[in-house]
Automatic annotation (TrEMBL):
Family: Belongs to the ParA family.
Protein's name according to its UniProt entry: Chromosome partitioning protein ParA
Basic and acidic residues biased stretches: 11-21
Gene name in the database record: parA
One Pfam assignment: AAA_31
Amino acid sequence: MTVPSNPDPSGKSDADVSRETWKATDNYETPIGAAAERAMQVLHTVAGQLPRPRSRRVLTVANQKGGVGKTTTAVNMAAALAVQGIKTLVIDLDPQGNASTALGIADRRSGTPSSYEVLLGEIPLQAAIQQSPHSTRLFCVPATIDLAGAEIELVSMVARENRLRTALAALDDSDFDYVFIDCPPSLGLLTINALVAAPEVLIPIQCEYYALEGVSQLMNNIEMVRAHLNPRLSVSTVILTMYDGRTKLADQVANEVRRYFGDKVLGTVIPRSVKVSEAPGYSMTIIDYDPGSRGAMSYLDASKELAQRANPA
Ligand code: ATP
Ligand code: MG
């Protein structure tokens, strides 16, 4: 498992790193002033600035490689859409519960209505939804430690791969415009449930050595789920994370990923940023923790790209 530096051991600040997004989108001379200005602009934008999808978009955030930015991408994309007027739900399907924590869901004790009870069919999805304290448009189905047993418990159950899809189908289509499903770093039954429940896969890829390692296995699994369980499934979006503009390696990886996935890769790249890694420690997304930071702006840009891309559904 890749263990990312947290905090950044290089000791360099946000302003030193990750210039690709900056160069691509900004002409400002003073990054800090520009950042504040951009944050003000975005946060004061009236609701409805982004195009709403024709129908609900459900994206499974998957990569069996650990620590590549799945959870960070799920919660920050969701928060970025929410701040721009779009009602968004994050389903935490990882027993680690990191998405729930980042979204400010305080009560994650065993027994709290969560994705576990939903998968087991004990409660409807609606009954497990909690509002994030940071936004009236951001919601979460939390994960508790109970979910750790679900992989085993599901094995003997009827329609074990379809449980999340069935639960989501009961949710009114007008309830949410976007649903992000945060997966654990494995290709077990939890991830399969997520792949069966969504038409779109969002793959975060860390700009590091061996970035594409395991991706062909992930693609094989996606293909198997598509062939046997969910014919609508496709990889709609790839996002490059933890990009460090100081290194040649980051550019090499970015180019390699763009060659492999073509225009599925968002133009916006998420920089490696200490602020991004600090935010969950305060039970916040980067959008709430520091809306003027590079990390927040890049997720805001990425969410705009996602919303403006044609809805493949
Ligand atoms: P897992 O496979 O364990 O679920 P993951 O793929 O969900 O991991 P994250 O938890 O999102 O990955 O990120 C791994 C670590 O990297 C976390 O400590 C997170 O705070 C940090 N991190 C994620 N994105 C960035 C970034 N852009 N800059 C700096 N640190 C980051
Ligand atoms: Mg995670």
